[in-house]
Amino acid sequence: MSVEQTLRTLANDTYPFHMPGHKRNPAFAFCEHPIALDTTEVTGSDNLHDAHGILADSMALAARLVGARRSFLLVGGATAGLLAGISASVRRGDTVLVARNCHRAVAHALALAGVHPVWLQPEWNASLGVYGARSPDTVRQALTAHPEATLTIVTSPTYEGVTSDITAIADTVHATGGLLLVDEAHGAHFGYAKDFPPSAVTLGADIVVQSLHKTLPAPTQTALLHACSSRTDAARLARQLAVFQTSSPSYLLMAGIDNCLRLLDREADALFAAYSKRLTAFRRRVGSLVLSPNADSGKLIIPCENGATLADRLRTEFRLETEMSGAHHVLAMTSIADTDEGFDRLATALTAIAPAPSTESIPCPPAPEIVCTPAEAADADRQWMPLTEAVGRTIAEECYAYPPGIPLAVPGERVTDALVAHVQALQNAGVEILGIADEKIAVIA
Question: What count of other Cβ atoms lies within 10 Å of the Cβ of residue 123?
Answer without folding.
Answer: 16
